[in-house]
Amino acid sequence: MLSLILVASPAFAQQTASPTFTVGKLADSADAPVIDGRVTEAVWQTVQPYSNFTQQDPIEGAPASEKTEVRVIVGKGNLYISVIAFDRDPSKIIVSQARRDASLSETDSVVIALDTFNDNQNAFVFGTNPLGIEYDGQVAREGQSSGVSVGGGGGAGTQRGGISAFNPNWDGDWTVKSQITERGWEAEIAIPLKTLRYQTGSDQTWGFNVMRNIRHKNEQVYLAPIPRGFDIYRVSMAAKMTGLELPARRDIKLIPYALGSVNKDYTRTTGSQVDRKANVGLDFKWGIRPNLTFDATVNTDFAQVEADEEQVNLTRFDLFFPEKRPFFLENASTFQFGNPQNIDLFFSRRIGLSSAGVPIDIMAGARLSGKVGGWNVGVLNIQTDEAENAAGTQVVGQASNFSVLRMQREVGRSSYGAIFVNRQGTGSHAPADDYNRAYGLDANIQLSSSQRLSGFLARTDSGGASSALGSDYAGRAFYNFTNNLWQISGGYSQVGKTFNPEVGFLPRRGYRRPEFRAFFQPQPKKITWIRRVAPHISYNSYYDFDGNLQSEAWHIHPFEIQPKQGGRFGWFSDYAKDNPLSPFQVYNRDGKRVVIPAGQYDWWQHALEYFHNPSARVTGTIRARVGHYYDGDFKSVEFSSDYRITPKATASVGWTRQAIDLPYGSFVNNLVPIKANYSFTTLANVSALLQYNGQTGQFSSNVRFAMLDRSGTGLFVVFNDRRDLLSSTVAETLGRSFVVKYTRLIDF
């Protein structure tokens, strides 16, 4: 069947070749453009604009319905880019957010990809909207992890903090200004060359592409055409920008911080409940070569980091909470190895946090990343301190040293690599011979323009208290086919019974896992209000090494319609089997405990869902689900609504209610997140995250004020509050903290 699909699908080979352009040069004696969001300076008129944009959606291959002009000039140590996004009716331009790194998928926007090594795999991404926000990130392996392709440039396809082959958490030092004008909207960008990595020399060539989102038409257009099913991360299809004269880069940055905090722990029964702290620290960045960067951190602090979003766990496995700390997020995709959130050999959240989530001070760390002789290289070393409980009476986290070495060789659009991860116990509380090591080899092979095969093989060794797990192996092979009509993928994973990546993320071990996914997205021509239909199906199961089924899951989504203006609606069914070998708890609150016994279970759930046009000023989603859960009944309603009060003021509210009726007890879970953000400017905002989790009975508040300066540095003021609303506990307020932190970028 697969061969028939390959024959019947449109061939990428028939597409037109990517265009080639020559970059403009700014003479030393000439005036640089004034970055004010008006493309009116005479210097821009000396450069031929790139203006031949092609639709990807709604009509693939058709000319753009609105004209776009892009100009590029290099000189005075900067790359200057201007965009005139013409629009016949500027009053219809949609602007949804005004804060740094906000999603660009539901607003008029432009996203620019720069393949600075011209290797057809990696790129820097810069984006903005008519308010001039800064959106940036890094692309590795054309945005493809070891699974399926990650979605959209500037979109919400990658959660901030999630680690994938597109990393939206990199914050570069650059400048942008935008305005809505009588022509439409315009943007001017200045990117210092020392912000980028590249090969030095004369007449260099970079990959270059621009995506414009004309949101009121729900139209996406590209400078170098990209077929449906892919996005701007498809670096191999970018245009070629020639004539670049690139000097050697001198790049030394110091980022010192000063912090003051007051923390009150209401649960502490001995000693003072109040901790006052003042601290200083330093991050150091050195561009050793234009293609190699050294980072160091001393006395690292992450007080300004956003709070985790609450989750409800109805499974017998650990939940995944993404990394959000800036030092670990930069260049994170360099160190990614395995199957994200399933078999991760390196998960940086294991560093600086105990198994119970208690922060452990990071004393110092260093990272080296870049390209060396055709290899992508990443080296990381972190030393953590010991951590004590709130009363200071017990060590809850020992001191450890963490090391990671990652290497990847790119051959065409394929890559081959290896990783080594080591945790070594240090200090007086570390057991003898306390270590955990993981090793792995991986490959990502581009079989054709639409087919990719990836796989890895890994081993772990443990000593000390973890030696009982011994040494074992894990591996995976995964195939993915994608074109503008189909996405078909399948794979096989195996994890040994004692495989133990302590610095990784592994929810379960001791299994064999086949998986399959098929996604079909035709675009009906005769029904004008439908953008496309998207039926899909997925399957995965877990077997032990004796062939016994551990669990199985089917997602059958036969009816999904995506309207012309955005959003979607449809219905689906989920089928699950589970065979827990021991009882596990799914509810424990106010003295009521619900435990599911060991046994064999299977059940169906059916759902209807509706997602309103996400670019509307008031939008919302609702999903109603009914069916069974193990040997009981299950009903749930999930609701969320987003409000764009003004482009500077946004808010959202959500509510998930799960009613579960089991033979061993009935219970209801409620999860309510409330978010609000006000942006004074594109670099200054105040945000709040209020959350109630009925499963734990806790209400938490996180309020952050940020006044950014350059590259994500600036002033941060953070207030946190946690309350316990359970009737079975005495304390209502659990803890409060107030933090003021100032960081500054000093470069040479």
**Mean pLDDT over all positions:** 88
Strand fraction equals: over 45%
Spatial extent as radius of gyration: 26 Å
| Major sheet attributes | 24 strands, antiparallel, barrel
Terminus-to-terminus distance: 60 Å
What is the highest CATH level, the class of the domain at 2-246? Answer: Mainly Beta
User: Which regions are unreliable across 5 or more consecutive residues at pLDDT < 50?
Assistant: 1-15, 146-163
Number of helical segments with 4 or more residues: 2
| Structural class computed from helices and strand pairing | mainly beta
Overall 3D shape = globular
Task: Report the strand count.
Answer: 46
The name CATH uses for the topology of the domain at 2-246 is Immunoglobulin-like
Helix share bin: under 10%
Q: What would CATH call the architecture of the domain at 2-246?
A: Sandwich
Per-chain topology:
Elements: H1 2-8, E1 20-22, E2 24-25, E3 54-57, E4 68-75, E5 78-86, E6 109-115, E7 123-128, E8 135-139, E9 166-167, E10 175-181, E11 184-192, E12 201-214, E13 219-222, E14 239-246, E15 251-265, E16 274-289, E17 292-300, H2 326-329, E18 338-339, E19 343-344, E20 362-372, E21 375-384, E22 387-388, E23 395-397, E24 400-411, E25 414-425, E26 435-446, E27 451-462, E28 472-482, E29 486-495, E30 511-520, E31 530-533, E32 536-543, E33 549-563, E34 568-578, E35 584-589, E36 592-596, E37 601-611, E38 618-629, E39 632-646, E40 649-662, E41 665-681, E42 684-693, E43 698-708, E44 714-724, E45 733-743, E46 746-747
Parallel strand pairs: 1-14, 2-4
Antiparallel strand pairs: 3-13, 4-5, 5-11, 6-7, 6-12, 7-8, 8-9, 10-11, 12-13, 12-14, 15-16, 15-45, 15-46, 16-17, 17-20, 18-19, 20-21, 21-24, 22-23, 24-25, 25-26, 26-27, 27-28, 28-29, 29-30, 30-32, 31-33, 32-33, 33-34, 34-37, 35-36, 37-38, 38-39, 39-40, 40-41, 41-42, 42-43, 43-44, 44-45
